[in-house]
Specification:
Layout (H helix, E strand, L loop, with lengths): L5 E5 L7 H8 L5 E4 L8 E5 L2 E5 L12 E4 L4 E2 L1 H13 L8 E4 L3 E2 L2 H14 L11 H9 L6 H5 L2 H18 L7 H15 L3 E2 L1 H10 L4 E4 L24 H7 L8 E7 L2 E3 L12 H9 L12 E3 L1 E2 H11 L3 E5 L9 E10 L2 E3 L13 E8 L16 H14 L3 E5 L7 E3 L4 H7 L2
Parallel strand pairs: 1-10, 1-11, 2-5, 2-10, 5-7, 6-8, 7-9, 11-15, 14-16, 15-19
Antiparallel strand pairs: 3-4, 12-13, 16-17, 16-18, 19-20
Helix pairs in contact: 3-4, 6-7
Bound molecules: inosinic acid (IMP).
Length: 435
């Protein structure tokens, strides 16, 4: 068992392939814990050719004996949770005794989804491109101090009835076209609570006890740094702290519990939804990346926007999260390209920017400053040793490391667990050597 608790989180705009990295590292940990987001996430894992897509439950659930934790910082849609539990059960994977849901997590109510869709419609051309899962409205209620927590659902029935009545009445004032009756919402919630009850508890206490007993924890990020509500491309972000800061607040663990931070970055860049993507490509190369990389949303099926690797973004993520290393994914997707590019800055009216700006207007009309490199035009798929990569691919990775300011400890060369390089001289190898 590893002794170091580590965080694995997205260094770009999500969909970096965190599911595979978390899944691969899980055997070293006693518990895997989600600290933010909800079922807007979609973590795809392939195990011996079988595809698993997890949205809410940490991908660690695929490993027997590992505890899987949903922290207070997560917003939980009970129906989505049950769907996932049932799908896992159909594959012979039981969650009882291993799944723990924080009593302080807020629940997504059925009308949060309606409010999400309405809010997007009202924004018109400035829409965010959300996953329409009700995530934003659930967090709005949490911050507005109107939210309903899992422990409220399991607590005093009269108090819960009152809260649901007030919340549904507020919903009815916003969506006037239809009137929702509070009672079925309340009854459903009570039934959902009973099904969740065996999994619910004090997650912070559980994690502290696990650590005290010598078990290590992996903190699993969802979405990514550039989608973080504070540090991302606001307002085109998700409604939670996906970057490292979310771990302490979203699980009730102190900063010193985080022993290492592994950022996951694709060998190129993608994004779903609206908002800036400075290295975005259109036309043939974008289509090739999308097709070869199967760049379609795991939650919504939307085609992802594709672009070259952006070192400004990853350097920024390295700073915000204190990345110790990068897990570079989908290198094999670039195999057939004659030339690859790395963005090192943005050419704007105000000069060349090398740090990611807060004011997105600075990015409008910005042109990426690129370094061109020859491609390797030979397969990297399935390679498990860095020295066995084509020389140009090795050069590309070394250059990414220089301009991003952080080393690539793990390199993924295919979707299966086995198709991975873990560099022996890296910090990641050091974390597990202590096992
Ligand atoms: P929301 O989280 O559904 O409110 O969506 C806000 C933004 O985050 C949109 O641009 C979504 O496409 C994006 N987003 C949310 N979850 C994910 C994810 O798991 N991967 C990539 N993008 C996501």
């Amino acid at each position: 068992m590893a002794k170091t608790n580590i965080a694995v989180l997205g260094a770009q705009w999500g969909d970096e392939g965190k599911g595979k990295i978390v899944d691969m590292l899980t055997p070293h940990f006693a518990a895997v814990a989600r600290y933010q987001g909800g079922h807007n996430a979609g973590h795809t894992v392939y195990v011996q050719g079988t595809k698993f897509v997890l949205h809410l439950i940490p991908s660690g659930i695929l490993h027997p004996g590992v505890a899987c934790v949903i922290g207070n910082g997560v917003v939980v849609d009970p129906q989505a949770l049950f769907k996932e539990v049932d799908e896992l059960a159909a594959m012979g994977i039981g969650v009882d005794g291993r799944l723990r849901v924080s009593e302080k997590a807020h629940v997504i109510l059925p009308y949060h989804r309606e409010l999400d869709v309405l809010s997007e419609a009202r924004r018109g051309e400035r829409k965010i491109g959300t996953t329409s899962r009700g995530i934003g409205p659930a967090y709005e209620d949490k911050i507005g101090r109107r939210g309903i927590r899992v422990c409220d659902v399991l607590g005093d029935r009269a108090a819960l009835a009152e809260e649901v009545r007030e919340n549904v009445s507020a919903r009815n004032q916003i969506i006037r076209e239809t009137t929702l009756d509070w009672q079925p919402v309340f009854e459903r919630l009570v039934a959902d609570g009973e099904r969740m009850r065996p999994w619910v508890g004090d997650v912070s206490l559980f994690l502290h006890q696990t650590m005290a007993a010598g078990g290590a924890i992996m903190f699993e990020g969802a979405q990514a740094t550039l989608l973080d509500i504070d540090h991302g491309t606001y307002p085109f972000v998700t409604s939670s702290n996906a970057s490292v800061g979310g771990i302490c607040t979203g699980l009730g663990v102190p900063p010193r519990a985080i022993g290492g931070v592994l950022g996951v970055a694709k060998a190129y860049t993608t994004r779903v939804g609206e908002g800036p993507l400075p290295t975005e490509l259109f036309g043939e190369i974008a289509d090739r990346l999308r097709d070869t990389g199967q760049e379609y949303g795991a939650s919504t099926g939307r085609p992802r926007r594709c672009g070259w690797y952006d070192a400004v973004v990853v350097r920024y993520s390295a700073r915000i999260n204190g990345l110790d290393a990068i897990a570079l994914t989908k290198l094999d997707v670039l195999d057939d390209l004659a030339e690859v590019m790395i963005c090192t800055g943005y050419r704007t009216d105000a000069g060349i920017l090398t740090e990611f700006p807060a004011d997105l207007r600075l990015l409008a009309g910005a042109e990426p400053v690129y370094e061109r490199m020859p491609g390797w035009s030979s397969p990297t798929k399935g390679v498990t040793r860095f020295e066995e990569l084509p020389a140009q691919a090795q050069r590309y990775i070394r250059r990414l490391e220089e301009v991003s300011g952080v080393g690539c400890a793990v390199i993924s060369t295919g979707s299966d667990r086995a198709e991975t390089i873990v560099r022996g001289d890296s910090i990641v190898a050091g974390w597990f050597a202590k096992s």
